[in-house]
């Protein structure tokens, strides 16, 4: 059996230490596969929470980048109250270059630069990820993501007012964040069979909403006093989690045995063994030919368009519609993600019970469109109705999105046409999520353009996207084949 040897070095020592830690995990959970699965789910959940946590601050900080500079503040004065108020622009002024009248377009361009880079990078990330150790690939992605997230916040610290700087950071961060999703979904597919994927991944996919909630709370805590920390703190968190991931992530249940064998080898070298019988990675076109991949990719495009428009624009909408400050709007927007947690779990449970993932998505999409219209109407009638509609919208919008990106991707990546080749999972996941990310890029951009004509136009766009996603689902029902049960 061919083997490659890495000479003793600090990297080799670090790799050996990581394998010893994995062996420690094995010894602590010996004979308890359920405990090992729980450990794995918690670790990957935390990794994904950190990815989403680091994406959220931009939506909270938007209202701070462009304040209401026409607000008039009165300076303390011993003169009569009839004296004209004094404007203090240094106390209530926007952050250049977002102080212009086209600030919505500039903020939308930042969203678009991140999401467009994410969408393009995702197609490449899955192909690269299948050819590299997942643990190392994921770690590098988390460390670099932490770096670029912190860089955005350092723009405040060093008084940077260049739009090009912020666009560059967003593009770079979008590219490196593509390492996350294909890696963790591949690991999930390795650990769990198809029968209970809906429930397990519905619970596990709560990381999206949990990350958004934590990101909102962290960013909201600092946004009014020092918005740079709204980025720096999440950046440090995801980088630290990257180190933990490298030390403790177990890619496959079989890796426990491999790590045990490697730990008994000489401490001066790391042995990397490649099996001659290992299946080759699937090609991009080969993944596209898997039944259902194209259809679910298009459906996710429209579903993610809606979800990410809420992600990036909901706090600003609440600020304008409910006349709340940035912190309160950010806190209130977390209710959309709370509803998303419930919706993701409910979608997973229903799809497992019925054995029809496409049907489950179709029903939730059918209900989501009129609910979005209801939210645009009810948000004008006070805080109570707004809270209720945020919860319902979050569940119906994020339910199909969560189901497609997790259970459906894993099912398609282990489709019987692959004849047991599990190495297709990363590429299939990347194709589906990459196509969805095209919608995620287009949605916030359109929202930035349409909001200039009124927020009603934005909600009409969101409802149209939901109906288009539903049409793609109905197209699936016209086919005969085993992927109808997906």
UniProtKB/TrEMBL annotation:
Lipid bilayer topology: Multi-pass membrane protein
Leader sequence residues: none
Pfam families on file: MFS_1 (PF07690)
Top-rank taxon, per record: Eukaryota
GO cellular component: endoplasmic reticulum membrane
Reactions that this protein is recorded to catalyse: D-glucose 6-phosphate(in) + phosphate(out) = D-glucose 6-phosphate(out) + phosphate(in)
Name of this chain's protein: Solute carrier family 37 member 1
Lineage: Eukaryota, Metazoa, Chordata, Craniata, Vertebrata
Name of encoding gene: LOC109058088
């Amino acid at each position: 059996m061919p083997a490659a040897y890495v000479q003793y070095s600090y990297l080799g020592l670090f790799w050996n230490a990581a394998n010893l830690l994995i062996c420690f995990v094995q010894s602590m959970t010996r004979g308890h596969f359920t405990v090992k699965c729980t450990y794995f789910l918690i670790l990957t959940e935390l990794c994904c929470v950190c990815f989403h946590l680091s994406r959220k601050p931009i939506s909270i900080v938007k209202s701070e980048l462009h304040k209401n500079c026409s607000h008039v503040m009165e300076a303390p004065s011993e003169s009569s109250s009839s004296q004209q108020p004094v404007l203090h622009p240094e106390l209530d002024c926007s952050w250049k270059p977002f102080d212009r009248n086209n600030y919505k377009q500039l903020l939308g361009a930042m969203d678009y630069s991140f999401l467009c880079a994410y969408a393009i990078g995702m197609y490449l990330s899955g192909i690269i990820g299948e050819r590299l150790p997942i643990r190392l690939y994921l770690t590098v992605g988390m460390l670099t993501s932490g770096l670029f997230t912190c860089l955005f916040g350092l723009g405040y610290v060093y008084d940077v007012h260049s739009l090009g700087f912020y666009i560059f950071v967003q593009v770079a961060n979008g590219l490196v964040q593509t390492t996350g999703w294909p890696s963790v979904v591949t690991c999930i597919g390795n650990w769990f069979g198809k029968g209970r994927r809906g429930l397990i991944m519905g619970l596990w996919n709560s990381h999206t909403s949990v990350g958004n909630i934590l990101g909102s709370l962290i960013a909201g805590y600092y946004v009014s006093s020092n918005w740079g920390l709204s980025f720096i703190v999440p950046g440090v968190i995801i980088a630290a989690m990257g180190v933990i991931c490298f030390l403790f992530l177990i890619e496959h249940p079989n890796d426990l045995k491999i790590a045990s064998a490697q730990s008994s080898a000489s401490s001066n070298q790391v042995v990397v063994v490649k099996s001659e019988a290992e299946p080759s990675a699937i090609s991009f076109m080969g993944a596209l030919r898997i039944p259902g991949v194209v259809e679910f990719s298009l459906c996710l495009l429209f579903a993610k368009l809606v979800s990410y428009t809420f992600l990036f624009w909901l706090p600003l909408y609440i600020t304008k519609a409910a006349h709340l400050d940035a912190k309160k709007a950010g806190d209130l927007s977390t209710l959309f993600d709370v509803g998303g947690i419930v919706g993701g779990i409910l979608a997973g449970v229903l799809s497992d019970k019925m054995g029809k993932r496409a049907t489950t998505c179709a029903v939730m999409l059918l209900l989501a469109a009129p609910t979005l219209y209801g939210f645009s109407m009810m948000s004008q009638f006070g805080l109570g109705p707004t809270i209720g509609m945020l919860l319902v919208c979050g569940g119906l919008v994020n339910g199909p999105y969560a189901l497609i990106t997790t259970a459906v991707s894993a099912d398609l990546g282990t489709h019987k046409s692959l004849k047991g080749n599990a190495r297709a999972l990363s590429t299939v996941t990347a194709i589906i999520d990459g196509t969805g990310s095209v919608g995620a890029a287009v949605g916030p951009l359109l929202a930035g353009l349409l909001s200039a004509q009124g927020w009603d136009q934005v909600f009409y766009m969101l409802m149209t996207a939901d109906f288009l996603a539903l049409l793609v689902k109905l197209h699936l029902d016209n086919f005969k084949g085993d992927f109808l049960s997906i």
